[in-house]
Structures are given as C-alpha cells and as structure tokens.
Design goal:
Helices cover about 35% and strands about 20% of the residues. By secondary structure, the protein is an alpha/beta fold.
Length: about 300
C-alpha cells in the first residue's frame, strides 16, 4: 500500500539511503532538510514523480505544520547526531533533537504513524555483564543520548509510534559520514594504515546503513503488530570490541596496524553488548555483515579522501 511519507533530514546519512528505497517501494516521499552540509545526496531521485524536497528547518512551526498535515507516516531523521557535534552546539542539540520533536508530536493527529530512530548509546555501560535488552536501565552518558532518551519517553506516550534504538551505523551512503566508528577505522586503515586504540576492550553493537533502511520498511509493513514498542536494531553477530573490529579490518587489509595505548582514556565511555532478539522475533533479519560492510567501505574510501585542510 502506497503511503504519504514525510522524512525530515532525508538528505542525510540515513535518509539518502532510505528515501530511494521508499520510493522504489511505491511510496510518495517528501523530504524536509536544511541541507546544512550542502549535500546533493538525493540528486539521483529528483526524476521520480513521487519525490519532493523542501528546504527548511524542523523547528519552524509554519514549515512543519502543512507538511505534517498531509503525511500518513513521519520518519524524523533530522537531528544533530552524535556526542561530539552536540557538545559543540548544545543549544542546537536541544532545539533540534528535543524541542523540534516535541513540536512535531504536538502537531500530529493520533492516527498518524511515527517511526523514529533513537540510539542504543543510551545504555551507557549496560549491567554488570554489559548486556542490554530493551528493558535494561538507561544510563545515557552524552547530551545526545540524554535528549534521545527524553524524546523516546514522550514518543512512547503515543499509540501509533515505533522507536528503533539504532546500533552504531556503518557503510557507504550518498551523504557519507567518515566519523562513525567502523567507517572511521576503515578510512584510517585505507589511508593511514594504522590506528591507536584507547580502551580497546570496550564493546558496542553495529548495523549497516542499508539494514537501517530495511528496518524502517519492515516497521511500515508490520506497523500494527509492532506499534507502541521499542526495538534494538543491530547486527547480532557484531557485538564486538574495538580490538575485534580492527581484526576484522585487518583480514581485508593485512598491512593495517593497530596499537593499544597503554595509558589514556577514550572520551566515549560506551561499553555494552546489545540483544536484538525482540526485533528478530518480528521476522526481521539483517542482510549486511560486518565483513561485507568493511569491504564496501574499502572500495568507497579508495575514491574518497578527506583533504579539506590538507595539501595532498
């Protein structure tokens, strides 16, 4: 069934992979984005008659209200994503990640459906075994995670909503992010051939950007059975430490060297193992392995080099 879908932040890392997939599935998709990175990541779908784009800010009610009125489904991707960016702009983080979503929830009717990405970084360090399910206590460390926790609590007051607690995403996308951990380490392996690890035993879960697109499509197709729930979204066989991640990369780039720092502390103190069993019980399975994603990134980084402030 074709739906009218509003994707805020749809030109970003997740959206530029998701939006073409939604169009291919027969939906009508409107993207609202401020294009803050001057990205042209949706050029390849401009030919599609069911695609439209609006340049604007999700914090402006006069912009959001008319777009929300015509939407059957809202996928709010627009956010300042990640702890470092939120620390640089805490005011923007609050107004975009929290206040704008509160505005959206106020403007929505009870019948409209929301599928929202939140984050499993909210688990912080998990329990004594660092193991987390959707029922585990939330111990958000960063401003980014704290805002996501607060918004998720509000979102779950709605019947017609699903929260997807995303693992750390990786993989190539039309609007690329090199700063995500798998992407970052693979980029360093391709171009620098080495990385220094702090607290190399710290674990987290990962998920490919295409599987993120697939889980949103899965949520749309199975909405009635899944609504009102929170789901961890990750690659179950990829609850790995930073050291193990480097070993995965080294299998494909044998001359990659990683060194564990004997002193020092990672500013990102997340350390957890996440269960994705609840989502898998709905019939969802990830399709992209960690190894396949690393292989894809190696190809991509052969073409991409971040030389904005370099001489070569």
């Amino acid at each position: 069934m074709s739906c009218e879908i509003l994707v805020t932040g749809g030109a970003g890392y997740l959206g530029s992979t998701l939006v073409p997939d939604l169009l291919a599935a027969g939906h009508k998709v409107t993207v609202l984005d401020n294009f803050m990175y001057r990205q042209s990541s949706l050029n390849h779908v401009c030919h599609h008659p069911n695609f439209s784009a609006v340049r604007g800010d999700i914090r402006v009610e006069s912009t959001m209200a008319p777009l929300l009125r015509k939407a059957d489904i809202v996928i709010p991707l627009a956010a300042l994503v990640g702890a470092p960016l939120c620390n640089v702009d805490p005011v923007g983080a609050k107004t975009i990640n929290h206040d704008a979503i509160m505005l959206m929830l106020k403007l929505l009717s009870p019948s409209q459906r929301v599928l929202m990405p939140t984050t499993n970084s909210a688990y912080g360090t998990g329990d004594e075994n660092n193991f987390c399910t959707e029922d585990s206590p939330l111990r958000p460390i960063s401003t980014y995670a704290r805002e996501k926790v607060a918004i998720e609590a509000e979102l779950m007051q709605r019947e017609n909503a699903i929260s997807f607690r995303l693992a750390t995403v990786f993989g190539m996308s039309p609007r690329m992010r090199i700063d995500l951990l798998v992407n970052d380490f693979t980029y360093r392996a391709v171009h620098d051939r080495f990385v220094v690890l702090f607290e190399a035993n710290f674990k987290r879960n990962y998920v490919h950007v295409r599987d993120v697109s697939r889980v949103f499509q899965h949520g749309i197709a199975n909405f009635d059975a899944m609504k009102g729930q929170i789901y961890n979204v990750g690659l179950s066989e990829a609850n790995v430490s930073k050291r193990e991640l480097c070993e995965h990369i080294q299998k494909q780039l044998p001359d990659f060297v990683f060194v564990e720092a004997p002193v020092g502390k990672d500013p990102d103190q997340r350390n957890y193992v996440v269960s994705n069993a609840k989502l898998e019980a709905t019939g969802f399975r990830t399709a992209m392995s960690l190894g396949a994603g690393i292989g894809e990134l190696i190809k991509g980084f052969t073409m991409i080099r971040n030389t904005v402030h370099g001489n070569v």
